[in-house]
Design goal:
By secondary structure, this protein is α/β, with parallel strands linked by helices. The protein has four domains: about 60 residues, no CATH class; about 110 residues, OB fold (Dihydrolipoamide Acetyltransferase, E2P), CATH 2.40.50; about 190 residues, 3-Layer(aba) Sandwich (Rossmann fold); about 160 residues, 3-Layer(aba) Sandwich (Rossmann fold), CATH 3.40.50.300. About 40% of the residues lie in helices and about 15% in strands. The chain has 24 helices and 22 strands. It has a seven-stranded parallel sheet, with helices on both faces. It has a six-stranded parallel sheet with strand order 17-22-21-18-20-19, with helices on both faces. The chain has a five-stranded mixed barrel with strand order 2-4-5-7-6. Strand 4 and strand 5 form a beta hairpin. Helix 8 packs across helix 9, helix 11 packs parallel to helix 12 and helix 21 packs antiparallel against helix 22. It is globular. The two termini are about 35 Å apart. Bound molecules: adenosine-5'-diphosphate and magnesium ion. Adenosine-5'-diphosphate binds next to helix 12.
Length: about 700
């Protein structure tokens, strides 16, 4: 029944069916059933223009929707280009409201008849002190329209093309009204176990679908919403948990049986500091994971500077102790090189072979590395994505570490996976803090570790927001810091990798900075995406060895670079950056023992959002807190690394606003699977059947 093509529904002909498919992706009865209203109107309530004016001008509700009855006035097209619009008005006994359309201008003029009474419905706004509705829902008025309809009428998302075929936001409701009576509880069988329904006092699935569309009352609507949101979140959790538990039980992994010579020698003799509690905990988790003969697939999150690299290194030594090779992959050449130098330095007194492989390693050197990797004499390979090329053949790869995971595509990761007969263990490290709720939803099938403790002695970076016209004061401050022997970063936004505009912007900034900091008293490194790798490298190097005091750069230095003597980070046009990016950049300073500063330079004109971002940045240095705020400001769809996850495409639930429900669903799900891991108990049969029927609806790669 629900899988029937939409064309078979009463009121839908071939033409409408095609439009519904094209415009709203509605192919079947089921799709229509899941086309949920975005609000309901009290159909019996007609607002007068005078009432609406009062409401708006008395500083009334921001988000007010209302319907009016009146006669439609003549049309007029005004404005040019993007401001071109169709304008008319609706006149009732108390006044007129303006009606405005920005698109489908011709269509609207063809369909609507000036001089005729209409019901106009929409969101009220005020423009030059007039009440206005942009893209109103228009329906021919007839007095009987008010009689005999349900009390709360649903309004659906629609499009101008559909409106032209009489399928506007209200009229789609007619189709749903035709569909609902045809459904029986058999079409929408219960899929949650009875005890869950009872404990949480949820209404049945069948009822929920009725009431979400046509609720007899507000309470009915809310009950339906609650039930369906819970179901949505719960089923997503269930799928992820099942995937994970299947991986835990059935995947084969190489076994790191012992903690041996390499690990112990390094830990006792060469580890330059005491590990933090969090680092130790994560190491234990990795040790446990890799010892049991199942494949580890773990996400390691830790704020910038929390010390993920050393955890990675110790894990690689663990692999070496068990005669397995490791590879560590970084997103950029600079980072890979830095990892290599740091690690080679730490291991210099040990008898272990480490190599660096990047795109710029060529000829004899490359040949020798490939040889060492394939005969197993190189135990630790560090590199860029050059390490996933087919030419790179490992003797026995046991561990893959991916630094800054969001820079790698799923496909790239999958290639590493295939480099051993039994898939190697995978540790994905990220410094982009992901709020816990999101992490568990987006990466629910990965195991998850977090380093939530910074090494001792770190001072928070003092963060200040300044406007452009205060620039010379900022430059004076930089001079004072440089006079103390410190170094500074000045960062320009990078809108598009190596685009011309960014480059010119950066160069203009560089020229200006040079006037404040003339040679030979000052030396400046410039790094940007348009430079050849070698030149970039050289400029970076000069800054690292303190040949230059100032680094002017686009965001290429965003990740990983480590210059402890740099104490000031100036971010130009800071309003152009997102929160997590600002946080990442700020993480470049505050790495040494000196007090560090981050100065956010912006223009005076700021959007509310940008102002909020500056406020958050100056208020906290906690990456997780910032990530939570980022999530609130931008919504989950935009958070780095989660875009393709699919798990976030909830129709009703919202991972930010419904967080308590996410937590509840998670708990219910875990309890249920602890009690009945394979869903064998009869009371869980409906759930099992439902999940089976949904198979193939989400695509999951082996490494999420
Ligand atoms: P990230 O997590 O951002 O990759 P790194 O691994 O680069 O951080 O570590 C940042 C700095 O902190 C490095 O200089 C590293 O040597 C140092 N560090 C890491 N762990 C500790 C620790 N437990 N105690 C002191 N310093 C540490
Ligand atoms: Mg790092």
């Amino acid at each position: 029944m629900l899988s029937s093509p939409i064309v078979y529904l009463k009121g839908v002909g071939p033409q409408r069916a095609e439009l519904l498919q094209k415009e709203l992706n509605i192919f079947t009865f089921n799709d229509l059933l899941h086309h949920f209203p975005y609000r309901h109107v009290d159909k019996t309530k007609i607002t007068t223009v005078a009432e609406a004016e009062f409401m708006l001008h008395s500083g009334g509700k921001q988000d007010a929707y209302a319907q009016f009855v009146g006669v439609l006035g003549p049309f007029e097209v005004i404005g040019e280009k993007r401001a071109r619009r169709l304008v008319s008005y609706l006149k009732d006994k108390t006044g007129t409201i303006e009606l405005v359309w920005f698109s489908a201008i011709h269509l609207i003029q063809k369909i609507l008849r000036p001089g005729t009474p209409y019901i106009a419905y929409g969101r009220l706004s005020s423009f030059q002190n007039k009440v206005q509705i942009v893209h109103p829902e228009m329906e021919l008025w007839a007095p009987e329209k008010l009689a005999g309809k349900s009390y709360l009428e649903p309004i659906y998302p629609s499009t101008e093309k559909l409106k032209a075929k009489n399928l506007g936001g209200k009229q789609i409701g007619n189709l749903i009204q035709a569909l609902l009576p045809q459904l029986t509880p058999n079409d929408l069988p219960e899929n949650l176990p009875a005890n869950v329904i009872n404990n949480l006092k949820l209404i049945s699935r069948f009822e929920a679908y009725q009431y979400i569309h046509f609720p007899p009352s507000q309470q009915h609507y809310l009950a339906a919403l609650r039930r369906l949101k819970f179901e949505e979140i719960f089923m997503a959790q269930m799928r992820l948990n099942l995937l994970r538990s299947q991986r835990h039980r059935f995947s084969k992994g190489v076994v790191f049986e012992i903690v041996g010579h390499y690990f112990n020698t390094f830990y006792k003799n060469h580890l330059p500091f005491e590990l933090t509690g969090a680092q130790k905990r994560v190491l234990r988790e990795i040790r446990n994971d890799t010892a049991r003969g199942r494949q580890m697939n773990r996400l390691l999150q830790g704020d910038v500077g929390s010390g993920k690299t050393i955890v990675a290194l110790l894990s690689m030594l663990l692999a070496a102790d068990n005669n397995y090779q490791s590879v560590m992959m970084a997103p950029t050449e600079i980072l890979a090189r830095q990892h290599f130098q740091g690690i080679a330095d730490l291991l210099k007194d040990m008898d272990i072979r480490v190599a660096l492989l990047t795109g710029s390693v060529k000829g004899k050197e490359r040949k020798s590395i490939l040889q060492g990797v394939s005969d197993g004499s190189i135990q630790l390979l560090i590199g860029t994505h050059a390490v996933i090329e087919d030419a790179v053949q490992f003797k026995n790869l046991g561990l893959v570490i991916i630094d800054e995971q969001h820079r790698f595509g799923v496909a790239q990761r999958a290639r590493l996976w295939e480099k051993n007969e039994i898939p190697p263990h995978v540790l994905v490290m990220t410094a982009t803090p992901i709020p816990r709720t999101l992490a568990m939803t987006a990466y629910g099938d990965l195991d998850y570790s977090v380093i939530d403790e910074l090494p001792p002695g770190r001072q928070p970076v003092h963060t200040i927001h300044r406007y452009d016209h205060e620039r010379s004061l900022v430059m004076d401050f930089l001079k004072a810091e440089i006079a103390k022997g410190r170094q500074v970063y000045i960062i320009f936004p990078l809108i598009e990798e190596s685009s011309k505009l960014d480059y010119e912007n950066l160069m203009r900034g560089y020229e200006e900075i040079k006037t404040y900091f003339p040679e030979p008293q000052y030396w400046i490194s410039v790094v940007h995406g348009k430079q050849p790798a070698a030149q970039k490298e050289e400029n970076m190097r000069r800054f690292v060895v303190h040949d230059t005091q100032i680094m002017v750069s686009t965001t290429v230095i965003e990740v990983g670079v480590n210059v402890p003597n740099a104490t000031v980070m100036v971010i130009e046009s800071a309003e152009k950056f997102g929160l997590s990016q600002l946080h990442q950049l700020r993480g470049r300073v505050g790495r040494g023992s000196e007090k560090s500063y981050c100065i956010l330079l912006t223009s005076r004109k700021l959007s509310n959002d940008a102002r909020e971002r500056m406020k958050i940045m100056t208020a906290t240095t906690n990456g997780f807190e910032i990530a939570e705020k980022d999530l609130e400001l931008r919504g989950p769809g935009d958070i780095e690394g989660t875009r393709q996850s699919g798990m976030l495409n909830f129709k009703l639930a919202n991972i930010v606003n419904d967080r308590s429900m996410v937590d509840a669903a998670k708990k219910v799900c875990e309890d249920l699977l602890t009690d009945d891991p394979d869903l064998m108990k009869p009371e869980n049969e409906p759930l099992k059947l439902y999940l089976q029927s949904q198979k193939g609806k989400t695509i999951w790669s082996k490494i999420s």
